[in-house]
Amino acid sequence: MVKEFSVVSELKAIREQKSRLSERENELSAPVLSDLELIPVIYEWFKEVLSEMAFPPQVECITQRKKFLFIVLFLFSPSVLAGGRMPNGVRKSLEEVFPNVKPCTISNNLADVVFLYQQYKDFRQDIEYIYTEIVSRLKFKGLIN
């Protein structure tokens, strides 16, 4: 079977679409924050926000760690939540915040945070509330616009 010359225009359209998708992916995966020294500060804020809730949860429980992990990754590397690689330094900063948690545990927690966010309304609502509070504090401190 002989190729039609129309493949040239189709190839051109595909390349243009791939370029637009790549640009959009870069926009969506751009981090809000890059200073990893903020991670412990954000964790302190996270604990404060939890303590102010009507029924404060236990901060050290796995569920709360997963919520914090989701928020930090969304701020520092949203592409990780979509299956991308964790940037250098982020895991180390998380290890410092959770000194009794092994690095592999952080990776294992990462494996299901997106699922939990998508499937459980309470989990999602907590993350959105805490995230909003943290972003407000970041803005107040002039760390983001």
Major sheet size, sense and barrel closure: none
Instruction: Compute the number of structural domains.
Output: 2
Number of helices: 6
Care to count the β-strands? 0
Strand content: under 5%
Contiguous low-pLDDT stretches (5 residues minimum) are: none
What fraction, in percent, of the residue positions are helical?
A: 55-70%
**SSE run:** HHHHHH
Structural topology:
Elements: H1 6-29, H2 38-51, H3 62-76, H4 90-97, H5 103-119, H6 121-140
Question: Could you characterize what this model shows?
Answer:
- With 145 residues, this protein is mainly α.
- The chain has two domains: 1-30; 32-140.
- Helix content is 68%, strand content 0%.
- It is built from six helices and no strands.
- α3 packs across α5 (103-119), α3 (62-76) crosses α6 (121-140) and α5 packs across α6 (121-140).
- The mean pLDDT is 93.
Brief sketch in words of this structure:
The chain is mainly alpha-helical. Helix content is 68%, strand content 0%.
Main traits of this protein?
about 140 residues, mainly alpha, 2 domains, 6 helices, about 70% helix, about 0% strand, elongated
